[in-house]
Amino acid sequence: RQKIKELAQTNLHFLWQKIKEQAPDVPFLQSSQEISKWMSKNPSCLESITALDLSQCGLTAVPEEIKYLTQLKILYLNDNELDALPEELWSLSELTNLNLGGNNFDT
User: Fold this and answer.
1) d(Cα 82, Cα 91) in Å, to the nearest integer?
2) Looking at residue 4, what is its pLDDT?
3) Residues 68 and 90: beta-carbon distance below 8 Å
4) SS3 per-residue string spanning 37-54
């Protein structure tokens, strides 16, 4: 159970790192709880992010906080260790390009 929690935190930190690359005005936050809380309270600060490359990050899951990137049009999740996608991903109504190749999905 602890390992799963650690993986979820790592996945969220990868997402936050990529967000910071595109939106340098977002604050420096270290804990997963701080990141999740900030994203939920400041979604308008994330509206400028329309493309996100999370390929080859070793992700084991897509953080549910992805739902706060409401203007996301392009999302690269290829070449990770994903075997499922969160329901929150399907709430991204602007998403038109999703790359999932090279993951562990059942065919």
Assistant:
1) 19
2) 52
3) no
4) HHHHHCHHHHCCCCEEEC
